[in-house]
Design goal:
The protein is mainly alpha-helical. It has 7 helices and 2 strands. Helix 5 packs across helix 6, helix 5 packs across helix 7 and helix 6 runs antiparallel to helix 7. It starts with a helix and ends with a helix.
């Protein structure tokens, strides 16, 4: 949560990956793959024509980071409850997921207070999906563990 808070407090200019990407690699090799991708996000068409190759790649990296970071938040929150409570699996999963989603909401609110950052409910959805993938992975682990005991 502290790491998420830290990155959410940084203005976009401090997190812009494009200068570094352009400095260290030629991105032309990925253009054929990225040219196949086009969608609307927050009322804006996202494609390489509107963002360029570097902007499109950065956008995808940033959204993948949303999924990944909240996936790990879900897993670590669950593990904290698992090791510190006597709750059942269902209770630990529900409370962990609720905390993950509530923190995603708080994160977007926090971004609204940060210069050059825009809060967006779609990011809460991405964060929640990352947490849901964590829930599914934990359930898969427990199902596999219980079948091995039999």
């Amino acid at each position: 949560m502290g790491l998420i808070f830290f990155f959410s407090s940084q203005p976009y200019e401090q997190q812009d990956l494009r200068p570094t990407m352009n400095l260290y690699m030629n991105l032309d090799f990925i253009k054929p793959v990225l040219s196949l991708i086009e969608f609307t996000y927050y009322g804006e068409t996202i494609n390489i024509e509107s963002r360029g190759v570097d902007g499109m790649l950065e956008f995808l990296i940033r959204k993948a980071a949303h999924l990944t970071v909240f996936f790990f938040l879900m897993i670590t929150t669950f593990l904290a409850f698992h090791h510190n409570t006597r709750w059942g699996l269902k209770g630990k999963l529900i409370v962990s997921y609720m905390i993950t989603v509530l923190y995603a909401c708080f994160d977007e609110y926090h971004q609204s207070l940060t210069p050059n950052r825009t809060p967006y409910a779609g990011d809460v959805v991405l964060d929640s999906i990352g947490g849901l993938v964590g829930v599914l992975l934990i359930l898969l682990f427990y199902v596999r563990k219980s079948t091995e005991k039999r």
